What we know:
Blueprint: E1 8-14, H1 21-32, E2 35-38, H2 39-45, E3 49-53, E4 58-61, H3 63-76, E5 77-82, E6 96-101, H4 104-113, H5 118-129, H6 132-140, E7 146-150, H7 154-170
Parallel strand pairs: 1-5, 1-6, 2-5, 6-7
Antiparallel strand pairs: 3-4
Helix pairs in contact: 1-7, 4-5
Subunit structure: Interacts with small ribosomal subunit protein uS11. Not a structural component of 43S pre-ribosomes, but transiently interacts with them by binding to uS11.
Family: Belongs to the adenylate kinase family. AK6 subfamily.
GO molecular function: AMP kinase activity; ATP binding; ATP hydrolysis activity
Amino acid sequence: MAQSSRKKPNILVSGTPGTGKTTTASLLADATQLRHINVGDLVKEKNLYDGWDDEFECHIINEDLVCDELEDMMEEGGNIVDYHGCDFFPERWFDRVVVLQTDNSVLYDRLSSRGYMGTKLTNNIECEIFQVLLEEAKTCYPEDIVVAMQNDCVDDISRNVTILTEWARSWQPAT
Ligand code: ADP
Ligand code: MN
């Protein structure tokens, strides 16, 4: 079901940790008045996880609980969803899927200053090198709604936010 009654678009901002999802989503929310939903924060606030993954050093989120929590807001429309994965969200939720990408050396520095080390750091750099999130997005959503955007520097982010703001302004509900 691709059609929906929503009057405002839903945008997913995906990408490897550190590619700038939260920064981008937050600037975009300011520019568009759409609602920024940081899924990682929501999971913590509402306890939507099943435990801790020792290998990847992250919460194991409960995907069904997350989708239940988001369903009404997504139905209503006007959301910017900020999350590194996209394969468990219903395809019908999104009008645009943005995958942010960052140069390896820039990403390495960002993740190191966030305190990532060892396997966690390496896994995330590999995730970016192999374009895991872009492939996932292309597998899960129609090709024409998926867009990759480079986010290395300040010029990149302002350009991306401008492009996405224009897109959101000109979005029309399906009739
Ligand atoms: P994510 O939510 O994808 O993990 P963040 O938005 O938290 O990424 O960004 C990670 C780090 O990179 C933050 O310190 C942020 O300030 C910085 N950053 C993000 N985008 C840019 C950019 N375009 N130019 C410079 N620094 C950026
Ligand atoms: Mn984030």
